Amino acid sequence: MKLKVLPPTLRKKHHYLVLDVKSEVQISKEEMLQYTLDACIRYWGENHSSNFNLWVVRHYLICETTKNNEAIFNYKTVLRCVRSYEDDVRVALSTLSRYNKNRVAINTIGISGTVKSGIDKFIE
After folding, report:
1. Contacting residues for 16 by C-beta, under 8 A, at least 6 apart
2. The whole model's pTM is what?
3. pLDDT in tens, 90-120
4. What residues contact residue 103 under an 8 Å CB cut-off, 6+ apart?
5. Which long-range CB contacts under 8 A does 56-62 form with residues at least 24 apart?
6. pLDDT (tens digit, 9 = 90+) per residue, 6-39?
7. Class of domain 14-119
8. Helix or strand run (H / E) with residue 38
9. Is 27 helix (H, G, I), strand (E, B) or coil?
10. What is the arrangement of strands in the sheet containing 70-82, beginning at the earlier edge strand?
11. 105: number of CA atoms within 13 Å, CB side?
12. Residue 87: burial class (beta carbons within 10 Å; 0-12, 13-18, 19+)
């Protein structure tokens, strides 16, 4: 017996956060997902943050600069979350300043309804 696909009216609606990430070390897409999940769980707890349904859709390295003999990596990331929880995710990400003894700065550039419009508006 084949499983039925949910109709569009019953699916969860998603919004996409475009993030500006600065770090001392290189960050992969999987590590970025781990950073965001860990920040949300630490701030909101597992019960509330399980509703966010977070996923890193895109992760771009924009540039690498050197300041005071320290490398700084600048990334743009598109993060998917459920529609009514954008502000909760933004609050949790603002509390993240260090991860694995490395400094990390995460700022939200904007919120979009689709991945394509988020990339067009805030990354390109």
Report:
1. 57, 78, 79, 80, 81, 111, 112, 113, 114, 115, 118
2. 0.86
3. 999 999 999 888 999 999 999 999 999 999 9
4. 23, 24, 97
5. 56/29, 56/32, 56/80, 57/16, 57/115, 58/115, 58/119, 59/27, 59/28, 59/29, 59/32, 60/123, 61/26
6. 898 888 899 999 999 999 999 999 999 999 999 9
7. alpha beta
8. helix 29-49
9. coil
10. 55-67, 70-82, 14-23, 102-112, 98-99
11. 7
12. exposed
What's 59-99 look like in SS3? EEEEEEEEECCEEEEEEEEEEEEEHHHHHHHHHHHHCCCEE
Q: Give ∠ CA 106-110-112 in degrees, rounded to 5.
A: 130
* The two three-digit tokens of residue 118, written as one number: 């988020």
- Are 20 and 47 in contact by the 8 Å Cβ rule? The answer is no
C-alpha 36/C-alpha 54 separation (Å) is 8
Is 110 within 8 Å of 15 (Cβ atoms)? Answer: no
